[in-house]
Design a protein that fits this description.
single chain; alpha/beta; eight-stranded mixed sheet; 34 helices; 32 strands; 16% strand; elongated; binds adenosine-5'-diphosphate; binds magnesium ion
């Protein structure tokens, strides 16, 4: 790097070297501090050291580029001039904060150090200048604590212990009851703690302090907490963190000072109201850390009306400038308001939708922007469970806290994040409710696994609240009636004891808590959702279908906007109570005992006879199954009236339908009237070493044609019947696991023959398509040959991913975590499509298939995807890019896919929702 590079950007005093769109270089915090300065919002002066310095620091084995130091020195001079005080000046010392800030916000992940610049000399100067020794010494002891723990790794508890023992000696309860002399004494004790742990005196040179803090911020970028957060949030591709050094302002200088955090609109509901918390006479961290439970922002109007008005004006100014909901931090020092941070506010899905739509109506943004603003995944939140109203009124609320992230959650109490991780590993199905005094970045893994989070302290901007909201997880904070007894493994709520493992219900929308599990119901969907989705549907070109096997799911998916069924799995239909028995009969069918009359026949003839008998037995069993199968299809076709339904023929290996334990086998033998040995023998016979690569998919009806025949007959008969009801049916028969065109040729011929026969018998006809899944890599390779025989392709990306990587999806647990940790894989390829590898097969399959179909049949080959990926926004974007006709996903993901498809269409600039 050339040494002339600019590494440091100053801000403050109505001007700045950076601006809002320089987040990659200055981090979000730095870029926005600069922007606020420029637009005339009061910001304490300071400077930002760029993310490139962080990248360089790690690239060069933890050393800084040479010209950083002189640039920082110049920026310090400028900040001093702007603020009218000097670092280390005994009469008028400048204090600074050192704050981290990457391009994307990572709440609480990085360490901020306040009050840097205090020393034995400076503290005296500050005491004299402010006439407030208590304030000065309080700041100094906080600095020694923060610097000691964050920069030098001293246990925070060691300092805390001194504080407690001093309070005991002075016979007081609250920190605020300690006077100036007490705090002066505390500083001595803190310095002793520091020296004992660090083996050196607390540094007295403010510039030395500042540099140590800057390095600590850089080091925290590769800290465990930060890495974990980036992994969970799938944050990749950032250079590093920037560091902001900024003149300190004080919210703890008395009753006309304070500090707060707020959102320009309600991040839970999206309502256009000012929303937040503040504390009188406190320093920034106090609100966020949840040490004291803060006041709602509306009270500021009474406490400091002038400041409140100013803040409301800034709220307005920020929103109209950024045209986006902002999350802000402010501090009032003796009646003067300073803004310390602004960023795009995190919000729930419900809130995101409402804000986007209302901003369009207020002509702040256009419809395209509104569509792009809402994270598809966050739509989940709109469909979150609510507590069943009757149960709500019938049960006593045991405590009420602050509603931090909406939705109802019912789970078993767990008191630490580690316990949540352990319990989830042992039993992933039990819902867990994490109950803590407060949460910290160390807890994120456990928080992620919990269904809900409850904390006894903290406000709407506490760590727990921010993180839970980001994930759309129900959360209640500041619930002071909840007392946690870690040692006993219990919590006490107004005298009632709840043990770890017992149920709690929380409502994150109202802040209420119940000490019993309550039933939940579906939510009411806000009007704005339908408006936004209408705009999205106008711009997307990709259709969205659903994967559904039952009429109920099909109807649900239609409500969510599904435009057809992309995958109807028929095997699920065989597990019903009345079906599994004939299914097992079908599977167990063999030639039976040899009749006496055949005893003397030649061996070949015997085999033929036996085969005939087995086929007849299979057909008889299939004959019992057929009406069930047909009835299922009738239900689905009715539900999907007018929309296409892709039905996949039986796919899994047959042994999945047989019991593998002795008890189950005995039961089957009894109900079928055959000896248990026979069942056992057949199960053993069907055992496979690699079931995934075994006797399944199209291989089944090729060997046992009567199975496929039965299914096709049921499909076409159902279609005829539903058509005769006056409905429109569009069946698409899908043949799974095809790897060679010959397989398809054979099965297609049979399918047509059966279909023709059914239609001839019925004296009517229905239109239907025959196509295949592309899920074996070979099928993608010979897609041109296959397309000549297929009317549609559906990419079965679950199997295609398994077979391309050679990973069994069910056996990936052992190595996937390591692969992700070692960055061998960026994401789980079963969740988000591997665009670089599997994606190539798909892209090639689409291209070859389309052109071959066009050339041979003169028609457009319909192409879709039906793996789990069909509901993953990144994968949807890829499907759009390669020109698929549709994606198919589970019913609840249909809205997500619709929005993701709209965003993909907007991204390639082909369409717009803008009114022309
Ligand atoms: P985070 O990213 O964790 O919010 P911040 O850098 O924003 O960390 O700082 C933590 C707290 O310290 C915030 O409440 C912030 O307002 C406060 N703070 C940071 N710098 C200053 C400053 N120069 N003067 C007063 N308070 C500050
Ligand atoms: Mg902050
Ligand atoms: Mg498959």
């Amino acid at each position: 790097m050339p040494d002339s590079q600019k590494y440091v950007y100053s801000f403050g005093g109505g001007k700045a070297e950076g601006k809002a769109d320089m987040k990659a270089l200055l981090g979000g915090k730095g870029a926005n501090l600069a922007e606020m300065s420029v637009i005339g919002i009061p910001v304490p002066p300071g400077f930002t050291i760029t993310t490139e310095v962080c990248a360089d620091y790690y690239a060069s084995g933890k050393t800084l580029p040479e010209s950083v130091r002189p640039q920082v020195e110049a920026a310090i001079r400028q900040m001093e001039a702007e603020f009218g005080s000097k670092l280390g000046d005994p009469a008028n010392p400048l204090l600074v904060s050192v704050r981290s800030g990457a391009a994307m916000s990572m709440p609480g992940m990085m360490n901020t150090i306040l009050n840097l610049g205090l020393s034995d000399v400076a503290v005296e100067g500050l005491a004299r200048k402010t006439g407030n020794p208590r304030f000065a010494y309080d700041g100094y002891r906080r600095l020694i604590d923060m610097f000691g723990s964050v920069v030098m790794g001293v246990e925070h508890e060691a300092f805390e212990h001194q504080l407690e023992s001093l309070k005991t000696q002075r016979n007081v309860k609250l920190d605020t009851e300690l006077g100036g002399d007490d705090l002066k004494e505390l500083v001595q004790r803190y310095k002793a703690v520091y020296k004992a742990h660090v083996k050196a005196d607390f540094p007295q040179d403010p510039v030395e302090q500042m540099w140590a803090a800057v390095m600590a911020v850089f080091n925290s970028w590769e800290g465990k907490k930060a890495i974990e957060y980036r992994r969970i949030e799938r944050i990749t591709g950032l250079k590093g963190t920037a560091v902001n050094v900024q003149a300190m302002v004080f919210g703890n200088m008395g009753e006309n000072s304070g500090t707060g955090v707020a959102f320009t609109r309600d991040p839970n509901t999206g309502e256009d109201v000012f929303y937040g918390d503040y504390l009188i006479n406190a320093q920034g961290e106090d609100v966020v850390a949840g040490i004291r439970t803060p006041e709602p922002i509306s009270r500021l109007q009474q406490d400091m009306p002038k400041v409140y008005d100013e803040l409301m004006a800034i709220r307005q100014k920020l929103e109209s400038h950024y045209k986006e909901m902002q999350d802000i931090e402010f501090t009032v020092q003796e009646g003067t308001l300073y803004m310390l941070q602004t960023r795009t506010g995190k919000r729930t899905g419900t809130s995101a939708v409402r804000i986007a739509v209302e901003m369009v109506k207020a002509k702040m943004i256009d419809k395209d922007t509104a569509i792009k603003r809402v994270a598809p995944e966050s739509l989940n939140h709109l469909f979150m469970k609510q507590i069943e109203p009757k149960a709500r009124s019938a049960n006593r609320v045991v405590a009420t806290g602050i509603s931090a992230s909406p939705g109802a959650a019912v789970g078993r109490v767990v008191l630490t994040a580690e316990a949540a991780v352990e319990q989830a590993a042992a039993d992933p199905t039990t819902p867990l409710m994490l109950v803590r005094k407060e949460t910290s970045p160390e807890d994120v893994a456990g928080m992620h696994l919990a269904v809900g989070i409850l904390t006894s302290t903290g406000g709407k901007a506490s760590h727990a609240a921010v993180v839970a909201r980001g994930w759309g997880k129900p959360c209640v904070v500041g619930c002071e009636d909840v007392r946690i007894n870690d040692a006993a493994g219990t919590i006490t709520v107004r005298g009632q004891v709840v043990k770890a493992g017992e149920f709690l219900t929380i409502d994150g929308t109202t802040g209420e808590v119940w000490a019993v599990p309550l039933p939940t119901t579906d939510p009411v969907i806000p009007e704005e959702y339908f408006e936004l989705m209408e705009w999205a549907d106008k711009v997307r070109t990709l259709k969205v279908r659903t994967n559904a096997d039952a009429p109920k799911d099909a109807r649900k998916a239609r409500e969510f906007g599904a435009e057809g069924i992309g995958l109807c799995r028929t095997e699920h239909m065989f597990f019903g109570e009345d079906r599994i028995l004939p299914m097992r009969k079908m599977i167990l069918a063999d030639g039976g005992d040899e009749p006496a009359s055949e005893k003397d026949l030649p061996a070949a003839e015997k085999d033929r006879k036996r085969h005939e008998r087995a086929t007849a037995a299979r057909k008889a069993a299939l004959g019992v199954l057929e009406p069930f199968q047909k009835a299922d299809f009738v239900g689905i076709f009715e539900a999907m009236d007018g929309l296409p339904v892709t039905i996949r023929l039986l796919d899994p290996p047959l042994h999945e339908f047989l019991p593998h334990d002795e008890k189950g086998q005995a039961e089957v033998a009894r109900s079928l009237g055959v000896p248990v040995e026979k069942v056992k023998h057949r199960v053993e016979e069907l055992h496979e070493f690699n079931p995934m690569l075994g006797f399944r998919g199209c291989r089944l009806p090729i060997v046992f044609p009567e199975i496929g025949d039965m299914q096709v007959r049921a499909i076409i008969e159902a279609a005829v019947e539903v058509k005769q009801m006056g409905k429109s049916v569009l069946p698409e028969i899908m043949i799974p696991l095809v790897g060679t065109v010959e397989e398809l040729v054979l099965l297609k011929k049979r399918t047509i023959a059966v279909a023709e026969e059914v239609m001839a018998m019925a004296g009517t006809s229905v239109e239907y398509l025959i196509g295949t899944m592309i899920e074996v890599p070979r099928a993608a390779l010979v897609a041109d040959q296959i397309a000549k025989e297929a009317q549609f392709f559906s990419f079965g990306t679950n199997d295609l991913t398994q077979l391309t990587f050679g990973y069994s999806r069910d056996d990936i647990k052992g190595f996937l975590p390591t692969y992700l940790k070692e960055k061998i894989l960026a994401v789980d390829p079963f969740q988000s499509l591997d665009v670089n590898g599997v994606g190539q097969l798909i892209e090639m399959g689409v291209q070859k298939g389309r052109s071959a179909r066009q050339a041979s049949a003169g028609e457009h080959l319909k192409v879709g995807i039906c793996g789990e990926h069909g509901g993953d926004p990144d994968s949807v974007a890829f499907c759009h890019k390669v020109g698929m006709d549709y994606v198919s996903c589970s019913p609840f993901r249909v809205p997500i896919a619709r929005l993701a498809a709209a965003q993909a269409a907007l991204a390639d600039g082909q369409t717009t929702a803008r009114d022309r």
